[in-house]
């Protein structure tokens, strides 16, 4: 087999209200450190990172951090179209951000069709609750109930401590990979949601040789 740089490329989008913590979450995942983001994202920011599924392929994630303000919605909608999945981000200390999640989810479904997108529900700023700096306005049980109703993985995270940040991204990556293995997803001409990887030599790759990854589980 060729010396692979990565086996697949998945394009993901982070969506949710402004200031819920999308940029901080993504920067911790990308750089491994907390960055206090005071200014809201203007338009769209782009990041990329390659991760390894346990006993499975190397996957490059193209990550698009979108602005949550209404005036940028027409810009960010164009980035839905070529995405295969979305992280639905809310702030566990701001009730309204959780109440708006169904709107964001429906937007993604509408613009990603005819493909069925993979979602992960991600609560941010867990550290503010744990250290007493802010009061929790969304319970973990509410989030899990929403996840159960829509059959999506849920997790609470902190970009400051790093708690569950890797889990959020690995969960959505593994679910997309499972849908490829089941045949639901296929690489298509003109769609950037999923692409085949690159190697140093041209060679056919038999992905059936990979062992199925264990499903992600929340630690708390």
Automatic annotation (TrEMBL):
InterPro entries: P-loop_NTPase, Rab_GTPases_membrane_traffic, Small_GTP-bd, Small_GTPase
Pfam families xref list: Ras (PF00071)
Predominant localisation class: membrane
Molecular-function GO term, any one: GTP binding
Cellular component annotations (GO), alphabetically ordered: cytoplasmic vesicle membrane; plasma membrane
Domain of life: Eukaryota
Membrane topology type: Lipid-anchor
Keywords on record: Autophagy, Cell membrane, Cytoplasmic vesicle, GTP-binding, Lipoprotein, Membrane, Methylation, Nucleotide-binding, Prenylation
GO biological processes: autophagy
Stated name of the protein: Ras-related protein Rab-39B
Lineage: Eukaryota, Metazoa, Ecdysozoa, Arthropoda, Hexapoda
């Amino acid at each position: 087999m060729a010396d692979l740089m990565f086996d697949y490329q998945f394009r993901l989008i982070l969506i949710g209200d402004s200031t819920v913590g999308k940029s901080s979450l993504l920067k911790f995942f990308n750089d491994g450190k907390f960055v206090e983001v005071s200014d809201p994202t203007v338009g769209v920011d782009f990041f990329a990172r390659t991760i390894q599924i346990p006993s499975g392929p190397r996957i490059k994630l193209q990550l698009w951090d979108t602005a949550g303000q209404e005036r940028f919605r027409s810009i960010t909608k164009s980035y839905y179209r070529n995405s295969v999945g979305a992280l639905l981000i809310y702030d566990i200390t701001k009730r309204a951000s959780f109440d708006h999640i169904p709107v964001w989810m429906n937007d993604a479904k509408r613009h990603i069709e005819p493909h069925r997108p993979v979602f992960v529900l991600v609560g941010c700023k867990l550290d503010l609750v744990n250290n007493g700096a802010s009061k929790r306005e969304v319970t973990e049980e509410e989030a899990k109930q929403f996840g159960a109703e829509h059959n999506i993985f849920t997790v609470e995270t902190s970009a400051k401590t790093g708690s569950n940040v890797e889990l959020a991204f690995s969960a959505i990556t593994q679910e997309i990979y499972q849908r490829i293995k089941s045949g639901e997803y296929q690489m298509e001409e003109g769609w950037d949601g999923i692409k085949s990887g690159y190697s140093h030599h041209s060679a056919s790759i038999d992905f059936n040789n990979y062992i199925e990854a264990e499903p992600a589980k929340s630690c708390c």
